[in-house]
């Protein structure tokens, strides 16, 4: 299996290549310039592995949720690479990639949270699965911190920067949270593993079918909404 995964949906810019059992990865937390960074990382991992795009079996692309521009870059770059090399693509969400990191650490269930700005979070609950690595316990959601809830009664390990943005989430009954996990970002290594499982299961699709997962349509608060939010601050 030779699969390239890429993600630019959050502060992280990440690429990972699974090549005949080995994993070659690049990861950087960047403020801007995701498009330029990710293409350079792609070149680096392919060169290190000694393979070309045309020799891959497919691509795994992050489809969000995350920053609107970052999600668009991730999808567009994956589509461009796939079209050029006639490769199938599989979609992986940022929340799935986060959750897999927590499940790899031994948790049976995970709550993945990312800061969605505007007083909201992107979040989702996941459970470990021996065949697919993980399964979602319901749809991914966006909303205020007081709407976040665990799925069922099992303990969940929390992961993602949503916990750093909203520390009160650490008080959820049944949640286990490590300080390092509250700083975690999606990683291409996890996306590559999930992508490989899905590609083997026949879930590869034409790049034209790849669509972003925004979860909401609004990019920013209006001036009136910002003023109202400031007025509520003691």
Summary keywords:
234 residues, alpha/beta, Nucleotidyltransferase, domain 5, 2 domains, 6-stranded mixed sheet, 5-stranded mixed sheet, 6 helices, 11 strands, globular
Gyration radius, rounded: 18 Å
Q: N-to-C SSE series?
A: EEEHEHEHEEEEEHEHH
CATH superfamily of the largest domain: ATPase, nucleotide binding domain
Helicity, as a percent range: 25-40%
CATH C-level label of the largest domain: Alpha Beta
| Silhouette | globular
- Count of β-strands: 11
The overall average pLDDT, rounded, is 91
CATH architecture of the largest domain: 2-Layer Sandwich
Here the CATH topology of the largest domain equals Nucleotidyltransferase, domain 5
Question: How many distinct domains?
Answer: 2
Strand residue content: 25-35%
How far is the first residue's CA from the last residue's CA?
56 Å
Q: Number of DSSP helices?
A: 6
Low-confidence stretches: 218-234
Q: Major β-sheet, in short? A: 6 strands, mixed
Structural class: alpha/beta
């Amino acid at each position: 299996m030779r699969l390239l995964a890429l993600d630019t949906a959050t502060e992280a810019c990440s690429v990972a290549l699974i090549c005949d059992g080995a994993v070659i990865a690049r990861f950087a937390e960047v403020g801007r310039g995701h498009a330029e960074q990710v293409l350079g990382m792609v070149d680096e991992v392919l060169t290190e592995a000694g393979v070309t795009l045309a020799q891959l079996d497919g691509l795994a692309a992050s489809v969000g949720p995350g920053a609107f521009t970052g999600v668009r870059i991730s999808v567009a770059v994956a589509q461009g690479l796939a079209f050029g090399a006639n490769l199938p693509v599989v979609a992986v969400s940022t929340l799935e990639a986060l959750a897999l990191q927590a499940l790899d650490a031994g948790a049976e269930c995970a709550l993945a949270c990312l800061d969605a700005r505007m007083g909201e979070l992107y979040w989702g609950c996941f459970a470990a699965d021996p065949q697919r690595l993980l399964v979602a316990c319901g749809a991914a959601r966006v909303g205020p911190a007081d709407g976040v809830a665990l799925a069922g009664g099992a303990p969940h390990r929390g992961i993602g920067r949503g916990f750093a943005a909203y520390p009160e989430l650490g008080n959820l009954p049944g949640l286990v949270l490590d300080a390092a996990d509250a700083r975690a970002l999606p990683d291409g290594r996890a996306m590559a593993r999930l992508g490989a499982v899905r590609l083997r299961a026949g879930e590869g699709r034409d790049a034209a079918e790849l669509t972003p997962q925004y979860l909401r349509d609004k990019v920013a608060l209006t001036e009136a909404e910002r003023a109202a939010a400031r007025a509520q601050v003691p």
